[in-house]
Design goal:
The chain is mostly beta strands and about 400 residues long. It has two domains: about 1-165 and about 370-400, no CATH class; about 170-370, Methylamine Dehydrogenase, Chain H, CATH 2.130.10.10. Helices cover about 5% and strands about 50% of the residues. Strand 11 (about 180-185) and strand 12 (about 190-195) form a beta hairpin.
C-alpha cells in the first residue's frame, strides 16, 4: 500500500501530491507547518511518511521494547544515538537505505532540548506539546519550533541523525606507510601508494595486513587505479602515468601527464580519470595514448583522490576536507560530505563502499552508511522566510 505525501501552499492555492511505499513496523509520520508571523495564520502545510533506516529501526526497536519491558512512564526513552537531532536539508534525493544521502545545504536543525538563542539555523524542542510517553496507538510525539530568524531557506529532506553535518560510519586500520597516498580496489584487495617508503602495497581489506609490495617507479607515487588486470600509477616526480604489472611492479607502459601535478587516478571501465592539482581540473584520458578526451574544473582547489562507482566520480578535496560525488559528464557536484580525516588523499570504490586514505591520521577508512536513523522527502520543496515561524511534528508509531 502507498502512503500519500503532500505540500499545501495556502498563499498560492497550490497542492503538490506524491505517493511512496508505506513503511511497516515502525512508522515516522511528519507534519511541517509554516505560519505568517504577523497574523499567526497557517500559510503552508506538508505531510509525509519517512524511511526508517536499518540502523534506525534496530535502535528504535531496542529503545521502545526496553521501554515497554520496564513499563515506566516517568521519562522518555533515550534517543541520543542516531535520533539526537532533526535536520533540514535542501536535497531532493529519494529515500533509500542503500544510498549515500545527498544532503545539499543544511537549512535548519534542532535537538531534543529547549532553545531560545539567536542561532540562525537552530530550532527548539516544544516541551509542552511533545509527548514522549506512548499513547494507545503506541505513538511518540515530537514537536519542534523555529522562530522567524532561524531555518530560513528552501528544504525538502528531513533527517534524524546524531550530529550535523551528517557523519558517516566507518572502520579503519593503520596504514603501513606514514604517507598514505593513492588507493585502488582490485575486486578482492586494496592497493596503497606509500609516499614515505616509495612502495606500492597490496593490503588485506579486513585486517590491513600487507600481502605483498614492490618499489614504485616514481619517488612520489600518488594516484592509483585498477583496470581489471593491471595497476595505473600517477607519478608526481616524473609527471607520468604508469601502467604496472601488479605481480612484479614492472612498468608495462607510460605517458606524460597533462598536468604537472598528477594526483588522483580512477578507471571507469574504458578510460582513465586524473585529478590535476596544478590546473585544478579533472581529466578524462585515453589510456592507450594519454590524450585528453575531456576535462572539467574541480570543485576543490586541491583535488586529490579519485574513484569511480560505476556511474559517477568521487573526489577527495583536500582544501575543503570533503568527499565529492561528481557528474562525470559535467563535473557538477551531486553531493558531498565531510572527510573523517583532515588530509583526505586516495579514494577507492569496492562496489558498495568508498575507501579513503587519510594522510593525517595515517589510517585507511572504509566509509559505510551514514549515521542517521530516519529520513523523509517532502512532496515538493518548502521555503521559509523571515516572515514565517515554523512547526514540525514528528510521530514515531510502533506497529509490531
Amino acid at each position: 500500500m502507498l502512503s500519500r505525501s503532500y505540500v499545501k501552499d495556502y498563499r498560492k492555492n497550490i497542492e503538490v501530491v506524491s505517493f511512496k511505499e508505506k513503511v511497516s513496523k515502525i512508522r515516522g509520520l511528519v507534519t511541517v507547518e509554516l505560519f505568517d508571523a504577523a497574523t499567526k495564520k497557517k500559510v503552508l502545510e506538508a505531510k509525509t511518511e519517512n524511511l526508517i533506516t536499518s540502523i534506525g529501526y534496530n535502535y528504535l526497536r531496542w529503545a521502545i521494547q526496553d521501554r515497554i519491558i520496564q513499563n515506566s512512564s516517568a521519562s522518555k526513552p533515550s534517543f541520543s544515538n542516531v535520533f539526537n537531532q532533526i535536520q533540514l536539508y535542501s536535497s531532493s534525493q529519494i529515500e533509500s537505505d542503500d544510498l549515500y544521502p545527498e544532503t545539499g545545504n543544511l537549512i535548519g536543525w534542532a535537538d531534543q532540548t529547549a532553545y531560545a538563542g539567536s542561532d540562525t539555523l537552530r530550532g527548539s524542542l516544544n516541551v509542552t506539546e511533545s509527548n514522549f510517553n506512548f499513547d494507545r496507538y503506541m505513538r511518540m510525539h515530537f514537536v519542534f519550533d523555529w522562530p522567524t530568524n532561524a531555518a530560513n531557506g528552501t528544504f525538502q529532506t528531513i533527517i534524524w541523525a546524531y550530529s550535523n553535518p551528517l557523519q558517516f560510519a566507518w572502520y579503519s586500520f593503520s596504514s603501513p606507510d606514514s604517507s598514505s597516498y593513492g588507493l585502488a580496489w582490485d575486486g578482492t584487495n586494496l592497493w596503497l601508494a606509500g609516499g614515505n617508503t616509495q612502495k606500492i602495497y597490496k593490503l588485506n581489506p579486513s585486517t590491513g595486513a600487507v600481502i605483498s609490495s614492490f618499489s614504485s617507479p616514481d619517488s612520489y607515487p600518488y594516484g592509483l587505479a585498477w583496470d581489471g588486470a593491471n595497476l595505473w600509477l600517477a607519478g608526481y616526480n616524473t609527471q607520468k602515468i604508469y601502467k604496472l604489472n601488479p605481480s612484479t611492479g614492472a612498468v608495462i607502459s607510460s605517458f606524460s601527464s597533462p598536468d604537472s601535478y598528477p594526483y588522483g587516478l580512477a578507471w571507469d571501465g574504458a578510460n582513465l580519470w586524473l585529478a590535476g592539482n596544478n590546473t585544478k581540473k579533472i581529466y578524462k584520458l585515453n589510456p592507450s595514448t594519454g590524450a585528453v578526451i575531456s576535462s572539467f574544473s574541480s570543485p576543490d582547489s586541491w583535488p586529490y583522490g579519485l574513484a569511480w562507482d560505476g556511474a559517477n566520480l568521487w573526489l577527495a578535496g583536500n582544501n575543503t576536507k570533503k568527499i565529492y560525488k561528481l557528474n562525470p559528464s559535467t563535473g557538477a557536484v551531486i553531493s558531498s560530505f565531510s572527510s573523517p580525516d583532515s588530509w583526505p588523499y586516495g579514494l577507492a570504490w569496492d562496489g558498495a563502499n568508498l575507501w579513503l586514505a587519510g594522510n593525517n591520521t595515517k589510517k585507511i577508512y572504509k566509509l559505510n552508511q551514514a549515521l542517521y536513523g530516519a529520513r523523509t522527502l517532502l512532496a515538493s520543496p518548502v521555503t521559509k522566510t523571515s516572515t514565517n515561524t515554523m512547526k514540525i511534528q514528528y510521530d514515531f508509531v510502533f506497529q509490531e
